[in-house]
Automatic annotation (TrEMBL):
Membrane topology: Multi-pass membrane protein
PANTHER family: MITOCHONDRIAL 2-OXODICARBOXYLATE CARRIER
Lineage per the UniProt record: Eukaryota, Metazoa, Chordata, Craniata, Vertebrata
Primary subcellular site in the record, as a coarse category: mitochondrion
Localization annotation: Mitochondrion inner membrane
Naturally occurring in which organism (per UniProt): Mycteria americana
Listed GO CC annotations: mitochondrial inner membrane
Family statement: Belongs to the mitochondrial carrier (TC 2.A.29) family.
Name recorded for this polypeptide: Mitochondrial 2-oxodicarboxylate carrier
Length: 254
């Protein structure tokens, strides 16, 4: 028994080293890719909502959060069909060479289940919650805290200040929105019993998971999510800040 425990410990340690050396850097790289992919449409949408809310005379702190919510909901409507196709392909147990292309898979989903909530827009409510809540907390926390904490004259310290706030923003937003993420995965993924839909709607799915698996089941996958969206969120906000400032300086000089 003690030998088996030792072997298990060594195995865990080995996997831990592999994770630190190989997987963790890959997670950081994926966070960087995630930043580049979302930067254009996410912040463009955020800025448009922020301009619209300027006419509503809302307090700046509330306006940032509401603009973030609006950008997240808009983003969710756009990306949800792609999420359905992605999850369907990821849960396909056939060999990689036997799997259909994304276009063929999307066409098959539309042909079988249509464009509605059981087809290409399956899990839309959960996706709306996931993106809406995340962006509301993410943008609201970042811009409100950034305006409270004093600015550092040292550029390096100022960079660290913004990075730290962005990291905390992404982490808190991930913690708050992950129950929606779990519900989305259950709804869009394969059902426990083939031919029987167990996970149908967002909040009913959350209630079912809580009842059958406990509260912590709603936070499955939290650690890798934080490791991806914590640094990824910080990088994305930093890129936004510095690119936005550079564009403003460029326009002013012209």
């Amino acid at each position: 028994k003690e030998v088996m425990m030792l072997i298990q410990w060594l195995t865990d340690e080995l996997w831990g080293q592999i994770y630190i050396v190989h997987v963790f850097p890959d997670i950081l790289f994926q966070a960087y890719i995630f930043t580049l992919e979302l930067l254009r449409h996410l912040f463009f949408t955020f800025e448009q909502y922020k301009k619209l809310l300027g006419y509503a005379s809302l307090p700046p702190g509330v306006a940032f959060a509401v603009a973030g919510l609006g950008s997240g909901l808009t983003e969710a409507v756009v990306v949800n069909p792609f999420e359905v196709v992605k999850v369907t392909l990821q849960t396909n147990r056939n060999a990689f060479t036997e799997q259909p292309s994304s276009f063929v898979q999307a066409r098959q989903i539309i042909k079988t289940d249509g464009l509605g909530f059981q087809g290409l827009n399956k899990g839309l409510t959960a996706t709306l919650g996931r993106h809406g809540v995340f962006n509301m907390v993410y943008f609201g926390f970042y811009f409100n805290v950034k305006n409270i904490l004093p600015v550092n004259k040292d550029p390096n310290l100022e960079f660290l200040r913004k990075f730290g706030i962005g990291l905390v923003s992404g982490t808190i937003a991930s913690i708050i929105n992950i129950p929606f993420d779990v519900a989305k995965s259950r709804i869009q993924g394969p059902q426990p019993v083939p031919g029987e839909i167990k996970y149908r709607t967002c909040f009913k799915t959350m209630a079912t998971v809580y009842k059958e698996e406990g509260f912590l089941a709603l936070y499955k996958g939290l650690v890798p999510k934080i490791m991806r969206l914590g640094p990824g969120g910080a990088v994305m906000l930093l890129v936004y800040e510095y690119v936005y400032a550079w564009l403003q300086d460029t326009v002013d000089h012209k």
